[in-house]
Structures are given as C-alpha cells and as structure tokens.
Amino acid sequence: MTAPAGSALLTDAPHGRHFAQFHRDDGALTESAFVFLEAGLRRGNGVLVITGTDQVDRLFERLSASKFHPQALCDAGQLSILNTAKVLDQCSAAGLPEWAKFRASLAPVLSRLLPYGSGTRVYTEMANGLWTAGHAEAAIRLEDFWNAMAADYQFSLYCGYTMDTYSEHSYAAPLEELGRTHSDILGTPEDERFGVALDRASKEIFGIPLTQMAGVSRHDAARRFPSGQRTMLWVKRNLPMSSPQLVARARKYFTDSHV
After folding, report:
1. Helices 243-258/191-206 angle, 10° precision
2. Domain span holding position 233
3. Alpha carbons within 13 A on the beta-carbon side of 45
4. What percent of the chain is predicted at pLDDT more than 70?
5. 62-76, 119-133, 236-250: which range is least confident on average?
6. Within 10 Å of residue 147's Cβ, how many Cβ atoms?
C-alpha cells in the first residue's frame, strides 16, 4: 500500500509537533493513524490513542497484521486506549471543554507513559468528533488545550479528521483556526491533484490559475495547509460568489482524472 502523504512526519513525529490531517473517508484515516502508531511502537514510544470503538478495532486489526499484540502492549503499559466520547464527557461542561477537567482527565495517562523514555505519541479524534458535529468553537478550544498541555509533557500529537476538503461547505467553518492551533496540516495523496483541478477550472472561468492570483498564500494560518486546501481557503475569502461554480467544475476535473 502506498504510504500516506506526510508519512515522514507521521513516522518521525518529533516532540512538540502538533499536526493534523483531513481525510475524506475512515479507511484513509485509519491507514495514516496506523503509520503513526506503528512507527512509535517500533521505536519503543509510549502511545496514547483516543478514538471510538470502531476505529480501535480497525487499528488493532492493522497492528495484529503487522505482528504486534495490541492487548499485550496495553497490559504492559506502552499502549493506552481511551474512548473519545467518555473523555469529552469528563473534560466538558455546558458543551465546551474546560481546562481543569481536560488536564485532570489526561495528565495521569500521559504520566503513566513517561517510563517509555524514547518518547510519547498521542493520536486523537476528539476534536474531529466536535468539528463534525458542528461544534467548531469546542474543537478549537480543545486543540488549544493540547498546546497548553505540551508545556508540561513532551509528546508528539496527531489529530485525525474526516472532512471533505473538496467541498466548499467544509470551508464555511473557521478552518483557518485549525491551522493556527497546529504546527502542520499534512496533505493527502489527492490534495495536489485537486489543486491542479482548481487551477484548470480557474483558468477557464477567470482566465488565470488561482495559484497565480495575488494573495493566495499570504495569510499566515493558511500557509500551514497543503496546496489544494490553501487555494480553497483563498477562494472562500476572496471569491465567495464564484466558489460554487469553480468548485463544481474542479470536482468534475478531479473525478475525471481518476477514471
């Protein structure tokens, strides 16, 4: 299977890096999460996974196929599994995460992983659940809390999201705020191809590719995004009335390129 885009950061995962990746389906997200977890376990890292039951089952299946024994790793303390819904319930009040509750819920788990001196990795879909449910403010606050937690605990953090970044509706929410809270937004294998499709559509509609238009990459938060997503952010800010036509044509070209 082809390694996901950004796989160098997924495997190396230096301390202090807090990165995210947006996938259009659960299968692709599982594969990227597996790359991150497998590399950490092979390097002797302590690993914390916060996700739903279905994703845990998929990841355990992938780890087992790679000759790992997930339950034995959990029993030994190298691997910890937490349920997204339960953790969110523990650390939230009135629908919003609270710092004291967040720290009280996760600090003990991170402390237990410290004996694995080669480092700690955290994979979480907590913010994804909030974002998908339309609770953007709560998701962004949660990402800020992770950054605050990093002041006291050394870990690398991978936030997995399921999001159709080729739909204009995904950019109606404050996506650039997610860029602000992360050190990196990793591209996917399809992102560059969608950027090419956007340029083709733009050239036909406006007479010039979007990547040549002034200001496409000047916004600080947008710089963290891969090319196709960065272009879409610019379109929503600067060409909101034209975005439906542009995106519809780009999606057609993108789909045709896969046939």
Report:
1. 130
2. 190-259
3. 26
4. 92
5. 236-250
6. 15
Question: How does residue 165 score in pLDDT terms, banded at 50, 70 and 90?
Answer: confident
Structure tokens at 181: 């809270």
Residues 84 and 103 in one domain: yes
pTM comes to: 0.89
CA distance 232 to 146: 27
Q: What is the pLDDT of residue 11?
A: 95
pLDDT at 139: 97
Q: Is residue 134 domain-shared with residue 23, that is, in the same domain?
A: yes
Taking a C-beta distance cutoff of 8 angstroms, is the pair 125, 119 a contact?
no
Specify the number of domains making up the chain: 2
Question: Could you report the per-residue pLDDT of 40-82, keeping only the tens digit for each?
Answer: 999 999 999 999 999 999 999 999 999 999 999 999 999 999 9
Residue that is last in its domain, among 155, 187, 219: 187
Q: Where do we find the tokens 């390694």?
A: 3
Cα dihedral value 245, 163, 3, 230, nearest 10: 50
Domain presence at residue 2 = no
Q: ∠ at Cα 230 (229, 231), nearest 5°? A: 90
- Answer with the one of 172, 187, 202 that is the final residue of a domain: 187
120-144 as b/e, with b when 16 or more CB fall inside 10 Å?
bbbbbbbbbbbbeeebbebbbbbbe
Query: Do residue 140 and residue 239 come from a single domain?
Result: no
